[in-house]
Amino acid sequence: MDIRLTVNGTEHALSVDVRTTLLDALRERLELTGTKKGCDLGQCGACTVLMDGRRVLACFTLAVAAEGAAITTIEGLAGDDEPLHPMQQAFLENDAYQCGYCTPGQIMSAIACVQEGYAETDEQIREYMSGNLCRCAAYPKIVAAIRQARPLLENR
Amino acid sequence: MPDGTQTMIGQPALRIDGRAKLTGRARYASDEVVPNPAHAFLVTSSIARGRIRGFHLDQARAVPGVLDILTHENVGGEAEKPKPMAGGDTTSTLESDRVWHDGQIIAVVVADSFEAAREAAHKVRVDYEAERPSATFGSPGAEEEVRKAGEHKDYHVGDAEAAFAAAPFKVDARYGTPTQHHNPIELFTTTCVWNGSKLTVYEPSQFVYGLRGNLAQQLHIEPGDIHVISRYVGGAFGSRGGITARTAWIAIAARRLGRPVRLVPTRDQGFTIVTYRAETRHHIQLGATSDGRLTALRHEGWEVTSRPSQYNVSGTETTARVYACPNILTKVNIVHADRNTPGFMRAPPETPYMFPLEVAMDELAVALGMDPVELRRVNDTMRDPATGLEYSSRSLMECYDQAGARFGWKSRDPAPRSMRDGDWLVGWGCASAAYPANIGPAAVRVTLTPEGRARVQIAAHDIGTGAYTVLAITAAERLGLPIEHVTVELGGSELPAAGLAAGSSHTAGICNAVAKACEEIRQKLALAAVVTNDGALSGQDASALVLREGALRSPAGAKEDLRAALSRVTGGVLEVYAENIPQGLPRESIGKAYAGQMSMSRGHSRQDATTYTFGAQFVEVRVHSRTGEVRVPRAVGAFAAGTIVNPLTAHSQCIGGMIWGIGAALHEATEIDPNAARYVNDNLSEYLIPVNADVPQVEAILVPERDDRVNPLGIKGLGEIGIVGMNAAVCNAVWHATGRRIRELPIRIEDLL
Amino acid sequence: MRPFDYEPAGGTEAALAASARHAAPDAPPPQYLAGGTNLLDLMKIGVMHPPALINIGALRGAHGGIEADASGLRLGALAHMAEAAEHPAILSDYPAIAQSLQQAANQQLRNMATLAGNVLQRTRCNYFRDPSWDACNKRRPGSGCAAKEGVNRLLAVLGVSEACIASYPGDFANVLAAFGAEVGLASPEGGSRRIPFEDLHRLPGDTPQIETNLRPGELITDFHVPAGPWTGRSLYLKVRDRASFAFAVASAVVALDLAGGTVREARIGLGGLAAKPWRSHEAEAALRGRRLDESTAQEAAEAAFAGAVTHGENDFKPELGRRTLVRALLEAAEMEV
User: Fold this and answer.
1) What is the complex's ipTM, to 2 decimals?
2) Which residues of C touch A116 (CB under 8 A)?
């Protein structure tokens, strides 16, 4: 099927199998491999992207059903020569990651978490970030990063 | 090493690969873009034991886009079995019709698209000649044997049986730990690209040379014709150390098609196509005097493995030497079942074996009416009780004291069920952690430019440990450069060989190699600078000169800038290749690394001293008095691991390990169907690993420790230590909260109703 | 996953018509695609093979609202779980509903999944979810049930049959069942009907493959939760192994209308324990007109699990279920309303 996907402000025309997920379209077709496949079954959160500003799982979104939505992936936060997004910077400074594979999903989820207003307390952050598994278990540092970045995001 | 250079090692540094990871630009092996790939999907066995009578492939072949289907019938002879790093023989896959275990790779479907490959794989029908399988301990048909000495040792010191019989205080109990799977978040992908006779393999790996060497052997091609690339690794934890069967079949699929082939296995396939932590059983007997001194330690373990493999972890090599004891007896048994071959998983021996020892110690403390920390203090020793060798350093009690103070252990009422917060029972527990200070051989190339830029090239692996950054720190310090002026290339078999990134050995192995190369650079520059007639350092003592702040400097303050110093030895850049062979390893160990064979100097097998990292771990649990949920609101660990190259990433490693331990104690167990010998909860929604809400507060203290004997940089390693004591600490805390002693992990609601 | 026809529907009539058009005898029925979080899941793992997906995302305007009035709460079928979880009226007047949604899945899934889709989610029984197991009466009628002698810790003890012990995995639906909600349905034949929520799901009996009483092509349009003096004093207690993002090992819905310490009316539901969203009329009856204390709560719990059937690994679940219900009752009684 021929579809158009708007990713990080750029519209892409592509032809996909009707079964292709948004995740595979991003990774295999658009070479946007920052969005990760960790389970392909909605159980890990590594494929979290923003669709029209809300965090969703790219593995459970058909590419054909993503037409018309504004999709933001990790690649859309900071260009090659641009400063890091405040959430990325906070992850860097807090060492809120180890292997880094779940990290794009964590960051997208963290940005949404702040925007949803669920980053008011550490306890709330922990609960609302529980959909993003981190096998390296950087969890306490992820909470610290979000705590640090929250005021910067709120003032953006 | 001249003094005055120790400025950057030990200072926290942000990851140099941070920006790449945080922006999604880092290319993990699963992300590498190759031209026009075909997509592979695995078909795995649905029985655990038997033979394949035949395949029905017509429906699968009819799926539009299907290009090829590999089975033992058409490719069986094209590859040999991979060779595991331990345990000898292993199970086969497409080599024959034999099915050894559930989820064994029995066919590979290749198609133009992932969607078509998956559809076709689901349409492959298989006729089996099924036999009744044995699932685990106690299953009919499981075969038990005493593990022979060889890869691992048993200890027999004094007369443990007599001492136990005579001891006034005793613990005599049996314990168990479950099957567990690594479940790194990056899947077990493989992409193979042929260019003539040259093969490029993109696969997340903890040992690119191991993958290369083993694959060459399997495919009967030259190792030099294989290039393995694994620049970033999305978690490993032991699962990517040894080669697994999939790689060769994907290489063969790509060769047959004349087109790159990419395999992205499913999460559930990851439970059976790689290794896992096998379930264990233990019998512990401790005898002690009334003042708490151990007089007898017997530890017998049982471990599950596959039918053909002798794989075992024999953690008795550690439990025999944690405490002073004059009478020690250890023994390990292996039980063959119809299972895939197990392998390394975070602190492979210590996680399952320290659990029973450290729970037994807690039980002994209760029997003695002694504080559990004081029991450890009474039995602390600076001499390895199993061999009589000295510990090169050992700060176990310093760890207890620092972590205990931070935790507030002193205010603990020793009585069980003595603390409560509303409906929640509160308990505190502690345990020791110990892990051998291991080190492997490594080669490295370091290049220094007149502009003061350095490049480090080494086939090391950053599996999240911060290897990129510790390499840069070491080179920056020893060459006197800012860390931003050092670039690091790793994760590829085109680079000088480094060993397996596992067993807490990697930082020690690779940083000592870099330090050695940098020292060669310093020496070359210093010697040239002192013998010349015209320089500022002319006639000085070469051994006293150091590289600092972009110049070669004498203690008295004379200096020569890098450009001038370099120009005396080269017209361009200075490139040094160095090999580091750790004490206790033979010269040929570096050749083994190039050949892809594991060689490691182990902390419990050295002739000069016993080298171990120690730690102490404290845990608070809350158990709901009605419904039995266990939560861990806080945990504190302290670890003494010699030199800490980067405290920032080291700290992350330690808390990561501790959280692994919380998961292992309370959540993680792969459930096996007892009749079918098949894994059932092979997904991340029911194989539970901790989520953010599970770990409110986890603290790690890095206790300063200097060890000049362990290796030149004094690095003991800490990737594994964080998990080691946690199982027991949680279990001991649950006893303190509830009065119930649970000796089988994980501890779940049903154990506490 | 097999190829399917994909058809976005512009409105309710179009969706129903598309469903009728794609229906064929001897083929699995077409499916409505909303959040997709369970449907795509089951398609990827080879359990479901619908010939067509009808995307009903565009129907959110018509069937996505949430309204509260004196008669109760109307929940649009296509409202996202996250929307309902944070709706002010639900938070204040129907706390059990908000809690059941907040404690389900994770925020990404709650942003995607709709209320109707959530209610219709299928069992997590792994013998059902993995087609390589031969014996599953729900997936292959007549093939047997491997779970009864297998790994069944998370499976049901209430409402099970010889044929199937799969558990209903959701949270929110248990509250709808307990609260006596009603389901609005639109049919491809034209017209609509309303049925009690308790009649939406079926017990497995001899036909575990038939999970609901929905007619072919029927579309859930809304849920209506009747107002009652008990909805304010209500809670959802979820007992799970992990602190978040986990299915219930056991859960309880409790809503109480108390006069002094005496129960005028109670609404009680159970989750993680039963073959379908579960209301315990027995437990409600045991409490009606009685003083709520530890011993009457225990009696209600005994009544709720009088018919429990266990299969080895899940032997502990009636006891855990009783304790969960007692805890929920006593906590609800303490609520400040």
Assistant:
1) 0.98
2) 107
